[in-house]
Design brief:
Elements: E1 21-23, E2 37-38, E3 47-48, H1 54-62, H2 72-75, E4 115-116, H3 130-143, H4 147-158, E5 170-171, E6 176-177, H5 180-188, H6 190-193, H7 214-218, E7 237-238, E8 241-242, H8 249-270, H9 275-282, H10 287-298, H11 300-310, H12 320-337, E9 341-344, E10 346-348, H13 349-361, H14 371-383, E11 389-391, H15 392-404
């Protein structure tokens, strides 16, 4: 992620082992017109597929997965949300692999089916652990971002190696810069990221020894370096070396999602004269994905100004690096969407508790969240009836809903109004 021009002020050791299995199970492989039962509400999940647990089915029958705020006076923004013409989810289900939407509507179907490529893309065999899958779904559902787009960004930025550090101070799998990226996150989401650590590292990758062993983490040995979690994500230093929080996958993917939300709201609110042009771009195939990727790489202000000067041909007004970067992200997105296999994982109650522990690390203690109560809510909703495990495909959206709606402080975040 390249430095951004700032408009306003700048500013466990634990792991559980598992075997990530890939299989051909896919709720869409059966008759797509008769597999599903409809939800009861126009604002609830449209189709319930697969075999969700009892707790998940109850949620899918009644909940709106696009509304994760339990108290609108506390967790809704003080400004208008994006209008429909800034959002494009056509062809999301059944998936059209030739189109990379940026936006994602979790209400279209209850299952979280994530296609997996049988082999490599551009020489990269991207691995995703059950922890990675959870946090990919976490930001996709909450921020309504196409998970394949995020996989494309991760692949283009770091080839899935969170030890990566660029000469532009980008760190981690999503290359959040410890300069302007840090400053913009502090400016736009001050309460959310106040406890995150930052280094001043540039150009030199973090040592392999700082990270959990990849073979133990993934249950298989990756073909290339794919480090994801440091040996202590809660520490500012490892072996006397400063380490940014975003080097850990769960911090990095959350940071990138926060950044993407800021970018689109900045465009909508600070560039009113080009709203119509931007809307036309966003409604075109790959349009919003290309713009969001270009803004992430070349700067949100520069990408907005490129629309001002060149309209739909905005990429031609940006740097040669960005002109290559954005299409590459979209190409990765297409390839991952076309995967013939499906990622799958199962989660026991202890697994979910461990994921919540990872999530806890990303929130400041000043918010006063009772994480024990969150775990109790998970138990009562999913495991009190004797259920022993949940699945990624069938249940993960419901798990995210329960966590996100426990208290207003766990609702999806909005950028500060003075930053957009």
């Amino acid at each position: 992620m390249k430095p951004k021009k700032l408009k306003f002020k700048t500013g466990l050791a634990f792991i559980f082992s598992f075997l990530l299995s890939s299989c051909n199970y896919n709720p869409f492989s059966l008759d797509p017109f008769h597999l599903f039962e409809s939800g009861d509400s126009n604002n609830s999940v449209r189709d319930i597929g697969g075999s969700p647990s009892n707790g998940a089915r109850d949620i899918y029958n009644s909940a709106d997965l696009t509304d994760l705020c339990v108290d609108h006076d506390i967790c809704q923004p003080s400004y208008d949300e994006l209008p429909d013409n800034f959002i494009q989810t056509d062809n999301q289900e059944t998936l059209d692999a030739t189109i990379c939407n940026f936006d994602y509507n979790p209400n279209l179907i209850s299952t979280f089916v994530l296609n997996q490529v049988d082999g490599s893309v551009n020489g990269l065999t991207l691995l995703l652990s059950k922890e990675d899958l959870f946090f990919l779904a976490w930001v996709s559902v909450r921020m309504q971002i196409n998970p394949y787009f995020l996989m494309g960004v991760m692949s283009q930025e770091s080839s899935g190696n969170c030890a990566a550090v660029s000469s532009s101070n980008g760190e981690g799998c999503f290359q959040i810069t410890n300069t302007f990226g840090q400053a913009q996150l502090n400016d736009s989401y001050p309460d959310r990221v106040e406890s995150w650590f930052w280094s001043s590292r540039s150009g030199s990758y973090y040592d392999d020894s700082f990270f959990e062993d990849p073979t133990s983490y993934f249950g298989t040995t990756p073909d290339s370096d794919q480090f994801r979690l440091t040996i202590d994500p809660t520490s500012q230093t490892i072996d006397g070396t400063d380490v940014s929080s975003v080097v850990n996958f769960h911090f990095g993917i959350i940071a990138s999602a926060l950044y993407y939300r800021w970018q689109e709201y900045l465009l909508y609110n600070s560039y009113e004269s080009i709203r119509s042009t931007a809307s036309d771009i966003f409604q075109s195939n790959d349009g919003k994905a290309n713009w969001q990727a270009a803004a992430y790489n070349g700067g949100a202000y520069g990408a907005a100004q490129a629309i001002e000067s060149n309209g739909a041909d905005f990429l031609s007004a940006m740097s040669s690096e960005t002109q290559t970067y954005a299409p590459n992200v979209v190409d990765y997105c297409h390839e991952y969407q076309a995967g013939a296999l499906t990622y799958s994982a199962t989660y026991t109650e202890d697994d979910i508790k461990s994921l919540i522990d990872l999530l806890t690390q990303t929130y400041p203690s000043s918010l006063g969240i009772d994480w024990t109560a969150v775990k109790d809510d998970i138990h009562q909703t999913f495991f009190s009836d004797g259920t022993t495990q949940l699945t990624f495909v069938d249940d993960i959206k419901a798990v995210i809903y329960v966590i996100s709606t426990n208290v207003p402080e766990l609702a999806p975040e909005w950028p500060a109004e003075d930053s957009i």
